[in-house]
Write a structure and sequence with these properties.
21% strand; 4-stranded mixed sheet; 6 strands; alpha/beta; two-stranded parallel ribbon
Length: 178
């Protein structure tokens, strides 16, 4: 919320583990329209703290990789049932990206925490709940911020961007409407 400067007309809900919320509350100045919810998103009761009388835009940045497929499906279904309409955007990972993180990446401390098996077809989530409709698959290799990367990384990403299949080898952002 602080980075994007949400207007005062927007209520912002950050959901994270209680320890993370406690740390955030110590370090990040309070805002009148920002609300922290300390909870495990796999539990059902945290959503009761979020009003359901208006559409929702829900951003789950980096969360889905740490949930099992069943937990992701359950979370999406609860969100869709709670709100009359909304949008969901989140980082997703292909099966290759999950495999590479566990076997090739230097992120071995994080790799052991990954539970999500990966999704190769962004339309697969539409089969999990018929109300989900893919708006956009954002292939990070094709985003403008690649221009800011170091030369070698920038050139590698520009190469990957020539193909959707190659672009899907890493993290992608999926954006759905319900």
């Amino acid at each position: 919320m602080v980075r994007i400067a949400a207007p005062a007309t927007v209520d912002w809900y950050d959901v994270d583990y209680p320890a993370v919320v406690a740390t955030r509350e110590r370090l990040v100045p309070a805002h009148g329209n920002a609300h922290n919810i300390g909870a495990d998103v796999t539990e059902t009761n945290w959503l009761n703290a979020v009003p359901s009388d208006r559409p929702a835009v829900i951003v789950a940045d980096g969360l889905m990789g740490f949930l099992s497929k069943d937990d992701v499906v359950s979370l999406l279904n609860r969100l869709i049932s709670h709100f009359p309409s909304g949008e969901i955007a989140f980082n997703s990972y292909t099966k290759f990206a999950i495999w590479a993180t566990k076997h090739v990446s230097s992120a071995t401390s994080v790799a052991g925490l990954l539970e999500f098996p990966g999704v190769d077809d962004p339309r697969e989530l539409e089969t999990w709940n018929p109300k989900l409709k893919l708006i956009r698959e954002i292939l990070l290799t094709r985003e403008p911020e690649i221009a800011e990367y170091p030369t070698a990384v920038r050139l590698y990403n520009r190469f990957l961007a020539t193909s959707t299949t190659l672009s899907r080898k890493g993290t992608i952002v999926l954006h759905y409407r319900f």
